Amino acid sequence: MFDIYTIIFLALAVFIFLRLRSVLGQRTGRERPPYDPYAARDAVRPAPGDKVVALPGRAPDTAQKPAEQAETADRWKGMAEPGSALANGLDAIVAADKSFDARAFLTGARAAYDMIVTAFAAGDRGELKGLLGREVYEGFETAIKEREQRGETVESRFVAIDGADFVAAEQRGKTAQVTVRFQSQLISVTRDKAGNVIDGNPDKVTDVTDVWTFARDVSSRDPNWKLVATEAGQ
Asked: Which of 95, 116, 184, 234 could form a Cys-Cys staple with 161, CB 3.0–4.6 A?
């Protein structure tokens, strides 16, 4: 037999269950799952028989929340002005490649700039081949070959890389392209066969500005970017 305390607890349990049901409602199996901020932003497809009425000029599933709008506006803070062609280009790259990190890219670009300039001076074709696009590599390789035929050597040493800033960005099909302006201080000298200086000065630091364009196929598993264009900056 149940004692009085068991009966009281059972009555309380039934009462609590009925109250929760009235507040939360019954689950029908068609409820939306809890919001996951890291889930893919796939379009929500209506279930068969559901009627969806879209407001004029606005899709029902594309409205941005204020926090999301602020995040988008601040995404390129210090790197690109909101709404500029550069910011739109960076947005397009992120849309195609969720792993793209602009600040990490600039850090890697500075390292690549140092490696490429140093490898070119040393005539290190193996190092250059992994960092350059085909056309740029062919141009560098031709310059190295001509230099070797004349018996010339180049000595280059960075004193500092003062800046690396985005100039342009765009997504062309599957290819992302990012252009960076580098400002550096460099000591560079070219010597002839006899070791005489024919260009540059071993004791003079020169301010150098280069504008380089890097590219990557975002559909490839290879995460590396390659230099595809170079020009002297103003």
From this structure: 184
β-bridge partners, 169: 178
| pLDDT tens by residue, 131-165 | 999 999 999 999 999 999 999 999 999 999 999 99
Angle, alpha carbons 39-42-44 (nearest 5°)? 115
Provide the whole-model pTM: 0.68
134-150 helix and 102-122 helix, angle to the nearest 10 degrees:
30
CA separation for the pair 58, 23 (Å, rounded)? 33
- Strand 226-232 and strand 153-172: the pairing is unpaired
Using only C-alpha atoms, the chain has a radius of gyration, in whole angstroms, of 30
Give me the residue spans of the domains in the chain: 85-232
Q: How far is CA 215 from the centre of its chain?
A: 11
Fold of 85-232: Nuclear Transport Factor 2; Chain: A, (3.10.450)
